[in-house]
Design brief:
Blueprint (H helix, E strand, L loop, with lengths): L1 H22 L5 H24 L10 H20 L5 H9 L6 H43 L8 H10 L1 H14 L6 H11 L2 H12 L9 H25 L4 H10 L8 H7 L4 H25 L3
């Protein structure tokens, strides 16, 4: 328990460091864009390759991306049913914020610190489904409700998936692993070095993007998004934790996965389809704070 609390405290302090350096002007959110590119194109793919290249992948783990995709579809459907009392574009903005999680920047650093390679293996498989949800389902929803001429289409979705270096890294590394093939040792060693930068960079970036500037007019709409995301995630996650016949870490991955923050990909979608960028950013930031507290509680009480 003490080690878990210490890891969360260290993570919180690194996030706070990123936030404070932004507030005093040492770095800006524009600088954060550069850090994000380094994470998504170098340190995260390196972490994926280093984790999955030689690790044995159990057949049961295939269920993690499947469950993620099914859950994303379910919560989007609930959004259609529950969010009705607003205009079309605002309704679309609230619905497309429901599916998709921030696994890469938020969960990976904490998971790596607490469960190491085994935890990364589970959350990595969960994230494969999440990539389909974020770059596919969320993108379709955002485009469907947009009043702009540009709409989401399958060609654009395919491009986003192909251009996702982490997703390509997952698929390629797992394919080679299952085929009994290996990357050259020198390549894996280089990836091992780059992978060490992923945790601190991700936590710093969370702090740089963190904002506590909330517009009071947003509270009602944010309340709808937060209530649907967290109530649904907690209920479904708990039910699956209790009934699935898998190992404790598998079930803990699902329970934690379903209360993670909103995925960062929703922010560029708000720009592309002309939604309220400030609302999307504010809501996303708020879920980071809520999910951090919830994950701390779950991990502290988890038997794993």
């Amino acid at each position: 328990m003490g080690n878990i609390n210490w890891q969360f405290l260290l993570s919180m302090l690194i996030i706070a460091l990123g936030y404070v350096t932004k507030r005093i002007g040492l770095v800006t959110e524009k600088d954060g864009e550069g850090i994000a590119k380094v994470i998504f194109n170098f340190s995260l793919p390196a972490l994926v390759i280093n984790t999955f290249s030689t690790m044995k992948v159990e057949t049961s783990l295939v269920w993690l991306p499947v469950i993620n995709i099914m859950y994303g579809s379910l919560i989007a459907f609930l959004g259609f049913l529950l969010i009705k009392d607003t205009d079309r574009k605002k309704r679309g903005m609230l619905i497309y914020l429901l599916p998709g999680f921030n696994i890469v920047l938020f969960a990976y650093p904490l998971v790596e610190a607490i469960w190491g390679q085994e935890g990364l293996k589970h959350f990595g498989m969960f994230d494969m489904g999440n990539a389909i949800v974020l770059f596919g389902l969320c993108y379709i929803l955002a485009g469907h409700f947009s009043s702009e001429e540009e709409k989401a289409d399958f060609k654009s979705i395919a491009k986003k998936l192909i251009k996702s270096v982490p997703l390509v890294s997952y698929v390629l590394t797992l394919t080679l692993n299952l085929a009994g093939l290996r990357f050259p040792k020198i390549f894996v060693d280089i990836c091992g070095i780059l992978a060490r930068a992923n945790m601190p960079l991700s936590l710093l970036l969370l702090g740089i993007y963190l904002s506590f500037s909330f517009d009071k007019s947003y509270w009602k709409s944010m309340g709808k998004v937060l209530a649907i995301r967290y109530v649904t995630g907690a209920v479904i996650g708990t039910l699956l934790y209790l009934i699935l016949p898998f190992a404790p870490l598998f079930k803990t991955t699902i329970l934690i996965g379903m209360i993670l923050p909103i995925g960062m990909a929703v922010i560029p979608y708000s720009i592309q389809f002309d939604y309220d960028r400030r609302f999307v950013g504010t809501t996303t930031n708020l879920t980071v704070i809520i999910s951090f507290v919830l994950m701390w509680l779950i991990v502290s009480l988890s038997p794993v």
